[in-house]
Design a protein that fits this description.
By secondary structure, this protein is α+β, with helices and mostly antiparallel strands. It folds into two domains: 222 residues, Molybdenum Cofactor Biosythetic Enzyme, Chain A (3-Layer(aba) Sandwich); 83 residues, Alpha-Beta Plaits. Helices cover 39% and strands 18% of the residues. It contains 13 helices and 13 strands. The strands form three sheets. The chain has a six-stranded mixed sheet with strand order 3-2-4-9-8-7, sandwiched between helices. The radius of gyration is 24 Å and the shape is elongated. The two termini are 29 Å apart. One of its GO terms (molecular function) is FAD diphosphatase activity. It comes from Diplogelasinospora grovesii.
Amino acid sequence: MFLRVGQVARHLSRPLPCSASGSITAASLQRNAFMASGITADQRNSRTITTAACLIIGDEVLNGKTRDSNSHFFAKWCFSLGINLRRVEVIEDDESEIVEAVRRMSERYDFVVTSGGIGPTHDDITYRSIAKAFELPLVLHQRTYELMKKMSRPPRAGEPPFDWDVESPALRAKLRMAELPTDANRDIEKQVLHPCDDLWVPVAVVNGNVHILPGIPRLFERLLDGLKPSILPRLVDPEGKGTCRVLISTPLPESSVAEYLTELAAQVEPKGVKVGSYPRWGKKRNTVTLVGKDKEFLDSIAPEVAQYVKGRVVSVEGEDDDLADAE
């Protein structure tokens, strides 16, 4: 082939224990195996980031009420930084599901984000479940609490008055959003981050690499982007040049280029390049992609790939559809 190949004050001071069972269960055995890995939370919090995973938590996503956009945003975010997103999962608001998933992801991937389940209502159990996963207490984080008080909007017209100094169901609901999994043996500054100065919402970092984010897309996106300055120094490429994608538009059906692309993929794999083929239903042209971190190499092989598939390099998928209609 080719290629170059007051009560509140007391509340602030007391930890909230997680429920635990003394019996030996499958979950406890899994936890023991997790602990046996020998990697500490501080090591996870400082090692080079090459892989990532995303855990979407919420019944509303699984039952179709809400469409998840956070995993899509996270995928683009990882791609732009050159982080290899290895897994995206969607699970229900179930403690055992959350516990199993975050333990497994924390063990296997360098950078993990969760989305959803950290509001004030009864089904917002993410903090509690992740605390249980790593045998940590929930502790009210005072800075988060103070920021919440400072930045929360006043009651709207018709809403009951609210007093931060009076014990009430509403206050307890608000406090739950600032009760975070906390390891007393680690620096709290590494466990609770506030990436955006104008948001009180924290990013709790558990076991060194599990980042708990809200499910509201606007907040998820802003907080994730706010984490970028602290992430960049831990990348293989600290300049964060990310991954590159070359698009090649071809009039040939996938079956006609399949053998060639299979051979091509094997040749460029040592250079860290992945070859993709994507049909565009209802259109006259399909798309071949070359994805990798070495832009110079991708640009060097793209013309020959385009020639072989009788296509052309394009900047945006579909930009030459009008030309196809004229042919």
